[in-house]
From TrEMBL:
It comes from Nocardioides lentus. A motif (GXSXG) lies at residues 46-50. The active site is at residues 48, 195. Residues 11-208 form the PNPLA domain. This is Patatin-like phospholipase family protein. InterPro entries: Acyl_Trfase/lysoPLipase, NTE, PNPLA_dom. A motif (GXGXXG) lies at residues 15-20. Keywords: Hydrolase, Lipid degradation, Lipid metabolism. It comes from the Bacteria. A motif (DGA/G) lies at residues 195-197. Pfam families: Patatin.
Amino acid sequence: MAGTTPGTRGLVLGGGGITGIAWETGLVAGLLDHGVDLTTADVVVGTSAGSVVGTQLRSGTPLAELYAEQATDVLDAPTPPSFGLPVVAGFASSVLRARGDAERLGRNLGSWSVRRARRGKTPPLQERLDLIRDRLPSEEWPEADLRIAVVDATTGALRVLDRTSGVPLLHAVAASCAVPGVYPPVPIDGRPHVDGGARSVANADLARDCERVVVVAPLAKGVGPMQNPYQQLEGHPSVILRPDEASRTAIGTNVLDLSARGASARAGFAQATAVADEVRALWA
């Protein structure tokens, strides 16, 4: 295909909160258990939760170790952040005022997120950076191609951060995980940045230069002008994996609920059995 590098394979890891990190890790680990190794991807694209998983996979940490941590149930998990009425209303207003324009949506979500952070409606920035740091095996960018999607809160434009961007890996991942209205924007180059999911749940088009693409997307629907992975990879050799019924049940209604982490990881691992042949046919 035009614009692609022959023989290359891309792995796209979408957003989905704490349970998304767990489910993605479980699914990738389950596929490896069936002989399909997605960690050999030439390109890894990570958005939000996917930026954490992508960084972990690129770190060289054994996948079995990553899965074991995610599959462990968390006892006495803290009360998760809530997608309450103010957050839902703010998001809905941003979508309506975007009038179908993706960058306008990014600006709307970005400015709203900045206002909420200034009013103390989100956790302190340093607290978020410390939490993200604990999730990263290393703060050094990997040599292998890792692309992290963030949105400039001022312009609404997508930015793709990698080891050549000059942005510290910690700040890139923290920005990609900065869910608008829930977590504080992260300053990069003097401007606030928010979750890459403000543009797309997976930003799968960032891997279109690969000949074949596998998308692991806890959330696969777009809202308003957000394109979903099916739209972004239309006509491109790809497999898009989303939670099955059992996985959706395990994930539950709040993707930030740490108490659902273990069940989400195990459900992802189990789901791999049903999709392994399809992924193998594309990946091999």
